[in-house]
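not sure who needs this but someone in the group chat was asking about ABC transporter substrate-binding protein from Ruania alkalisoli so here u go. i didnt clean anything up, its just raw.
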Amino acid sequence: MKRHLLLSATTAAGLLVLTACSGSSDATEPSDTGSGDVAAGTTAAEAGSALDLAGVCPATVVMQQDWQPEAEHGAMYQLVGPDYEIDTDNKSVSGSLVVDGTDTGVDIEVRPGGPNVGFQPVPALMYLDEDITFGAVNTDAAIAAHEAQPTVAVTSQMTHSPQILMWDPETYPGATTIEEVTSQGAVVVTSGDVIPALLAETVGFDLAQSDTSYEGTPARFVSDTTIMQQGFATAEPYIYENEIAEWGRPVGYQLMSEVGFSIYPEPLAVRADKLEELSPCLELLVPIMQQSQIDYLADPEPTNELIVELVEAYDLSWTYSAGVAAFSAQAQLDEGIVTDDPASGVFGQLDPDRMAEIVDTFAPLLEAQGTITDAGAVDPEALYTNEFIDTSISMGE
């Protein structure tokens, strides 16, 4: 089992050769066949309504994720209609863009990231492929790319990062925080040096305890119970207890968002140079995406079935069970990962003060790594807009 090898692939960005994706089409048969232009089992959007995207949005709205299909991406997959087709060569799924049984008149294509795209950062993919409408761009990735591949986030999907550091509760009995474990000398194993650098600033972490050799597998954690290792609250606690026989028990962990890892995880972003052109579409589509996340978490099982089907069809090293998917959806709620914006009470809205704090925290770290050249040149207000947010949408209503 491998998962995100880096916070958002930012520290590896300079090592990647940016090459466009290509491949022959090998699509499966549609799971259901519609009549005319409307997917079977759906109704056409009323002309001129908020769900009528035809002629306003691209004929195919292409959404680029940063990793393999998983429940954290539920809002995107929630919109894939029943007439979907799976392209097993290019690793994508496409179909009518459907909102609660209404065909919007355009199609959607969701593309996974990670090994499917040579681990290229999402902003790089967006600038290589003009067809990509939205990318899931972590805020630190947006900062890393702001000089050459600027993007603008238009709505958040998860409010707080699911990133965790985890430890063996039997080795560190009673520990409930990262600081309590690191103070006992635990080596922190990560796949990049952003986490250690952040911990050094927030919890007084000794960088001599840092090990950046994590490769995404459980072998090290299982064999050395003294270490602390990166993971995700939406996956590893379930996987280690239920799917890794060599472990088979709970892990202790704390959310990184509680110790300064303040980024917005995977907010939907567009290329900065396409913002004006896409504005009429975004006025309709951003509220749809706000509501889609809420609808997904209210009834995740149908979309989770699609997510698991896609993982199996793509047939890569990534494995993802229905159990993990169900756990993830619930954890997104239970852990407060998906909530209304605390500042405004609006779901999907980005907080200006938090965006400024993110830049203040991460731009200097990325400059120190050589990822960007001038932390002071990063303008928080250029990284996002709330212009298209429907302020009436919240999880409480």
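also The chain has two domains: 13-159+264-383, 163-259. if thats useful
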